[in-house]
Amino acid sequence: MPADDNDDQIRDLYTRLMQAWTANHADAYGACFTEDCDYVSYDGTRAIGRTPMVDNHDRLFRGVLAGSALVGACESIRYVTSEVAIVHGTASVLMPWRAKLPKRRLSRQTLVAVRTGGTWRFTALHNGRVRPIGIPAPDSLPARLSQATSRTARSLGLGARPAQP
């Protein structure tokens, strides 16, 4: 199967995932995943297996996320093998009382898609908020303060000890 066909199928799967969320249909959302999927929510909660993940989403869709929509796009697809792909997407939950997405709610998903029997499904998802903080330069004030604190702690015998070669 040409890569373009696989790309189209995986992008379609990602779209169905968002549509199922927007319909607040936990079973349709779960149908996008393998039975043995591994699902990590933005808060670090982990559901192992489709059934617990669907149960969690059913409660969310009937509770705090009732009427919400999932809005986003598939960013990239990278094939590890012809049957396994790493997929990155960005999305945000749009609550029914909002007209536009707040920037602080943007999340990035890393998904693992697998093809079995000619059908693509997600077998893993990890979701995290997009909140880049930047890396301070080594000579910046935050870096110098951290370095001084580390030296002081070591001289007092506090904190973790680095492994010695």
Category by helix and strand content: alpha+beta
Strand order, largest beta sheet: 2-1-6-5-4-3
Total of DSSP H or I helical runs spanning 4+ residues:
4
- Count of individual beta strands: 6
Q: Over all CA atoms, what is the radius of gyration? A: 21 Å
| Share of helix, binned | 25-40%
Beta percentage is 25-35%
| Biggest sheet character | 6 strands, mixed
Mean pLDDT: 91
Silhouette: globular
H-E string: HHEEHEEEEH
Low-confidence stretches: none
Distance between the termini: 50 Å
Q: How would you sum up this structure, described in words?
A:
The chain is of the alpha+beta class. It contains 4 helices and 6 strands; from the N terminus they run ααββαββββα. The chain has helices at 3-22, 26-30, 50-62, 141-155, and strands at residues 33-40, 46-48, 69-81, 84-94, 107-116, 119-129.
In short:
This protein has 165 residues and is α+β, with helices and mostly antiparallel strands. The protein has helices at 3-22, 26-30, 50-62, 141-155, and strands at 33-40, 46-48, 69-81, 84-94, 107-116, 119-129.
